[in-house]
Design brief:
It is built from eight helices and twelve strands. The protein has helices spanning about 5-20, 55-60, 100-110, 135-160, 180-190, 235-255, 290-300, 335-345; strands at about 25, 30-35, 40-45, 65-70, 70-75, 115, 120-125, 165-170, 195-200, 215-220, 260-265, 310-315. Helix 2 links the parallel strand 3 and strand 4 (about 65-70). The longest helix is centred in the middle third of the chain and has 25 residues, at about 135-160. The model is unreliable at about 1-10 (pLDDT under 50).
């Protein structure tokens, strides 16, 4: 006999599946894509300990209805093919373990919050965009290892009925190998029935040639918006207007809706100039909640309004409401108020 909580969970899951099944349509009159969904999401940080209960209620109160979960694989060197991962290791942080991922999905589904499973590679002393092999044999080995890594998470996503899977994140030097990626995607389709997306860096998405094999065009949208020391909202909106035609061109070519798989800004005065810079590199930079909030506002007043926009995931959201300075999170800052204003308005 099902409890009332279980019935709520099943209803939420079915609703998400139905929405994802009707995600967009192509308009021949405008030769553009019109997204029928608009997921309002955050990048959920896996916690050290099990959730207590109020964490997802606090997120839901902002108007958010989606989150991404990020387990990790590890690569010791950017030019070597070895990748380590263990989906059954329960000694890692709870929120990144298989049990934590399932519990977070189950709990969020009860609140009507859609999940995307978004495994990342952590590269020692580098970032995934610099992964590049030195010879063909190493490339073959790297892709064999990566297939093993991502297929394990595809199987997990299928088992837990997580409705969306990101097949890779910011793997800029590898995405040039179109046929290798098509093989990876084909293998994933054999074991996973949900929607697929790839999270291309903002410097990469125009060069990706396998968007047709996926359900969405995914962009890590850390586009630079202004070099001014004190930019206005108008300056930041003008910055977006320089980037949107490039996205529109890719949409028209592949006829797929777009999700910003990540976007975010630090609470510093230089947030709009180089949004991708890690907080540890900004420790000497003056703090500014105002600039961070203006960057959020500029996004909502420009890219968010595009017909092809199917969703956004803000980097990042701590379940415990953790705070440090500087940081990307909007929690407890003016940026959270901006996010909430627009999330609740739509």
């Amino acid at each position: 006999m099902k409890t009332s909580t279980q019935r709520t969970y099943l209803f939420s899951s079915v609703g998400v599946v139905l929405l994802l099944g009707l995600s967009w349509w192509f308009s021949p009159e405008s030769t553009g894509v019109i997204a029928l969904e608009k997921w309002k999401g955050v990048c959920w940080v896996g916690s050290r300990s099990p959730l207590l209960g109020p964490e997802l209620e606090a997120l839901k109160a902002t108007g958010a209805d989606a989150l991404s979960q990020t387990p990790f694989g590890w690569q010791s060197e950017k030019n070597t093919p070895e990748i380590r991962w263990d989906t059954h290791n329960e000694n890692k942080w709870w929120g990144e373990s298989s049990a934590g991922i399932k519990a977070t999905f189950d709990s969020s589904a009860r609140h009507g919050i859609m999940n995307m499973l978004k495994p990342h590679l952590w590269v020692r002393g580098s970032w995934p965009g610099e992964i590049e092999m030195k010879n063909e044999a190493d490339w073959e080995e790297w892709f064999a290892n990566y297939r093993g890594f991502i297929l394990d998470y595809a199987l997990m996503a299928e088992e837990h009925q997580i409705p969306m899977l990101c097949v890779g994140t910011e793997l800029e030097m590898t995405s040039e190998r179109e046929e290798d990626w098509r093989k990876v995607i084909s293998e994933i389709r054999k074991v996973y029935s949900g929607k697929l997306i790839y999270a291309a860096n903002f410097t990469e998405f125009e060069q990706v040639k396998f968007w047709d094999a996926l359900d969405y065009i995914g962009i890590q949208a850390y586009f630079p918006l202004s070099t001014k020391t004190d930019p206005t909202l108008s300056d930041l909106k003008s910055g977006w207007k320089k980037h949107l035609p490039k996205i529109d061109k890719v949409v028209r070519k592949y006829k797929k809706p777009v999700m910003f798989t990540e976007i975010g800004y630090c609470n510093t005065v230089d947030a709009a100039e180089e949004p991708w810079v890690w907080p540890n590199e900004r420790k000497e930079v003056e703090l500014s909640e105002e600039i961070q909030a203006l960057c959020y506002e500029a996004f909502f007043e420009t890219a968010w309004k595009e017909s092809w926009m199917a969703g956004v995931f803000f980097w990042k959201w701590y379940p415990e409401g953790e705070h440090r300075d500087p940081d990307f999170t909007p929690q407890g800052k003016m940026a959270e108020q901006v996010m909430q204003k627009y999330f609740l308005a739509n």
